[in-house]
UniProtKB/TrEMBL annotation, chain A:
Pfam families: CCG
Organism: Acidianus manzaensis
GO cellular component: plasma membrane
Name of this chain's protein: Heterodisulfide reductase subunit D
GO molecular function: oxidoreductase activity
Cysteine-rich domain ranges (all copies): 199-284
Lineage: Archaea, Thermoproteota, Thermoprotei, Sulfolobales, Sulfolobaceae
TrEMBL record, chain B:
SUPFAM superfamilies hit by this protein: alpha-helical ferredoxin, NagB/RpiA/CoA transferase-like
Name used for this protein in its record: (Fe-S)-binding protein
Domain 4Fe-4S ferredoxin-type per the UniProt entry, residue ranges: 289-320
GO molecular function: 4 iron, 4 sulfur cluster binding; oxidoreductase activity
Record Gene3D superfamilies: Alpha-helical ferredoxin (1.10.1060.10), NagB/RpiA/CoA transferase-like (3.40.50.10420)
PANTHER family for this protein: LACTATE UTILIZATION PROTEIN B
Keywords attached to this entry: 4Fe-4S, Electron transport, Iron, Iron-sulfur, Metal-binding, Repeat, Transport
Organism: Acidianus manzaensis
GO terms for biological process, alphabetical: lactate metabolic process
The keyword RNA-binding is assigned to this record: no
InterPro entries: 4Fe4S_Fe-S-bd, 4Fe4S_Fe_S_CS, FTHF_cligase-like_sf, Helical_ferredxn, LUD_dom, LutB/LldF, NagB/RpiA_transferase-like
Amino acid sequence: MIEEGQLDFIRRLVFKYLMEDYMPFPVNKTSCYEWANGLNIKKGGETILYTGCSYQLASIGQKFDDFLPKIYKIKGIESLSTFGKKFLKIRDERAIKILKNISLLLKKANVDFGYLYEDEPYSGTILLEMGMLEEFKEYGKKLIDLFNSHGVKNIITVDPHTHYTLYRLKELLSFDVEIKNYLEILSGKDLHSTYKEEYVFHDSCLYSRFLGMRDVIREVIKNAGITIKEDDMITGKETSMCCGGPLAPINKEISEKIAKNRAESLKTVSKKVLLACPFCYVNLSPYVESYDIAEVISNE
Amino acid sequence: MSDWDIAIKRGIEHNIPRVYKVLKEHPYLEDLARKVREGKIEVLSKLDYYIDMTMKSVESIGGKAYFAENTEDVREIVGKIVGTNKKVVLGKSMVAYESGIRKYLQSKGNEVWETDLGELLIQLADEPPSHIIAPAVHMTKERIRDLIKEKLGVDPGDTHEDIVKVARDFLRQKFLTADIGITGANAVAADSGSIVLVENEGNIRMTTVVPPIHIAITGVEKILPNLEYAMNEALVQAAYAGLYPPTYVNITSGPSSTGDVEQKRVSPAHGPKEFHLILVDNGRKKANEDPVLREALLCIRCGRCHFHCPVYRAIDGKMGDPPYSGPMGAMWSGIVYQDYKPALLCSHAGNCREVCPMKINIPKVLEYLKSKYFESIRKQ
Ligand code: SF4
């Protein structure tokens, strides 16, 4: 278990980065929006696609979970952020492909949306998930101001954590926007997948139990012609387990053990796992063959 | 696989399908659970009034009632009733554990025995419990066999039945010669002063009836408005723990009595001549004033949330400060020990909230406790 000093260090550091640059870690911001290059998505508008940088930062975030607690006693480490922000460019090809797929699916469904590009902020998920409610509210105000300054009225989210974070911002502060997840928008649409294998679907805890999207997602999968196998004790609403992701900054060992446990039980249903969350992917993919839903319901 | 992984896997495979089966076969249990929640909310909204009513009711049926502000008070009250050089049998009570009663009474020269089989194993191993209703859930049967061999000098053999038989023979002697029986209470009826205890082993029945003195120690949040609610609580607790119908439900209303001589109610009869009820605060009243923490006081200790929690399953029984473990334990560590760190282990999977019979929004309580943790370190 992480020590008090380490936790406080992470708290201060992450909060500082967020307040300075709308990013939780000192990485170059291009990492966040380069997926949209060449797609001709207009900048801004009342309805925007908002990635919250979740997919883009998921794997680097895992490295920071390892790294931050180790460096907390090094003097002056906090000032290294300027260096990171300039030079630490990350490029996650898989995340890029998933986000491209999502935007193409939305276009096919005739949804009119824009994107904030370099102005797109990180959602603040990490603060909420670690339980730093005060910091979350403070960053949240900054976030709301930013969306308001762009005249945003409708937000389309692409992952459960960002979606839930916005939902909590609406609950805790006054934030007058409509939030819709891309999977909700795609439900009822006739999708077509070339992937014909059977999968087991690993529910995101947030989608399934906090956001009421369990059935909607299953409908999207079915409409794409994909077969998913169920087992009451493994994929039920009350029995399906977390991937361990949210615990990684607090206790890496337990987080990994939860991931292994989950992967093992999923494998008893099907060897191919379908999921809908960047953190579930990062946590489960070392132990089981995993695919994001946006990788298999689009033909791109 | 570690011992914990093997033991918890077996425990889950036995428990989870059984709870679903019980709830399917007896659909009225969900209604009872809703009713119990209402009754508990009623009491919590006027807690002082109901504490007072309960204490008066206990006195009116010939018992003695005490209000203990903290665990020191509990030890002092129990210490005075028990004295020294006595033989004490304990029925599993989390509040007795919270108050350190077993070790305290032992330090005063008393012989003290846990009588719940799981709790006895915990006592023999000198380890903290790992689950609220199955305290030795972390031990495999192979480990239990070795433990009994080492501590009681008898090899029980390798079946579950053999193990239970050795414990039964050992404890029977203790029940028959005990001076005092101490239990908790699943529920306390404010209108009658009765306590309700639900069990399967028969140890609580004996603990409450055989020794001449019975002490019940419980938290103030266990009060329900009347005996009907209190009975329902016991049924709901048993069902969501997966042990339904419970083998025994015990109601104790004061010391033993008889009305057989001209219908005059006379006390004592064959059971205890003294009945003491200790109602414990230890942070509960303060939690009750907080709208988020109040929810946690609705917990009926069925232990269902534990088995549905991915973290508890992975963590070797060490989520929370004993005897409080698992998701409920992370909440209760905050309430009675002001320890907010166990809440940090919540990954907000949310399964606990889905399965809780009291519909406690456990992830929300834990999120709040996490924020209290950060508040405390921010202040340093
Ligand atoms: S929190 Fe709910 S599920 Fe957990 S032990 Fe208490 S009543 Fe049972």
